[in-house]
Design a protein that fits this description.
34% of the residues lie in helices and 17% in strands. The chain is built from six helices and nine strands. It has a five-stranded mixed sheet, with helices on both faces. The longest helix has 27 residues, at 2-28. The relative contact order is 0.14.
Length: 256
């Protein structure tokens, strides 16, 4: 009898957690209220340069993301005055769990659970009220190779991990990657080739109807890059050169 009661309680807890997650995800894309995004900087490589850069960060460094989401929601006829509100959190000293080099389905599931637990536990001391979305930005020295593919956004738990450069001149590209991972937390999917990073036609292109098709002038945010040719693309220098394409808009409920 006692065992049955314990199992019942556990099932009720799991049901509550699952229902809460579903409701949170539904609310995140109803576009009726502002989403609160909190950005937590992390010194990824322990460098002095990254430490100094983090110390000088301001909330205004991420305003480009707010303007981008505002512009694109208006383009899809959503009338909310401030779709996202970004706050800068305190530096987090713990590094996030790492995904296995050769991940399989089980290892990804375990890593995802570890990530969600880590995201909550590493910010408990500064978050009396939990934000809607947590984005952890791991800053590296500018001469270190950090690829877009190394960043990740989880819809379950609404957590993003971004690898960026500790340099003012990379602020724009950092924000492009942050916006990309933020939209992952809302349910948007990647629209680039995992092998070479090239945006996939047509949904990964900022201007899929452009004639001639190349070079493109804008990046589709989930395509990640501006396609200059069928085999050449670059990350936009800031979010002025990025758009939310039609498929991505449908995935995050901006359009039908």
């Amino acid at each position: 009898m006692f065992k049955a009661i314990r199992i019942s309680i556990l099932l009720l807890i799991l049901l509550f957690v699952g229902l809460s997650a579903v409701l949170t995800q539904a609310r995140s894309t109803d576009w009726n209220n502002s989403l609160w995004i909190k950005v937590y900087p992390i010194n990824a490589d322990g460098s002095t340069e990254a430490s100094k850069f983090i110390a000088k960060l301001k909330t205004s460094d991420f305003e480009g993301i707010e303007r981008f989401i505002q512009r694109e929601t208006e383009r899809y006829s959503k009338t909310i005055s401030q779709p996202v509100r970004i706050e800068l959190g305190k530096e987090v000293t713990e590094q996030p769990p790492m995904l296995a080099k050769d991940p399989n389905t089980l290892s990804v599931m375990i890593w995802s659970m570890k990530m969600r637990w880590w995201a909550g536990s590493s910010t408990d001391d500064q978050d009396r009220i939990e934000p809607d979305v947590r984005i952890f930005v791991r800053y590296h020295e500018p001469d270190m190779a950090v690829r877009l593919e190394n960043s990740v956004g989880l819809q379950k738990g609404m957590v993003g991990i971004v690898n960026g450069y500790a340099s003012r001149r990379h602020r724009g590209t950092n924000n492009v990657i942050i916006a990309h991972e933020f939209l992952h937390t809302l349910g948007a999917t990647d629209k680039y080739d995992g092998f070479d990073g090239q945006p996939i036609e047509p949904d990964g292109l900022g201007e899929p109807d452009r004639q001639p098709l190349y070079p493109q002038r804008y990046a589709e945010i989930m395509g990640g890059r501006i396609a200059l040719a069928v085999d050449d693309a670059v990350i936009p220098k800031n979010l002025k050169y990025a758009v939310i394409g039609n498929l991505t808009a449908r995935e995050i409920n901006l359009s039908q």
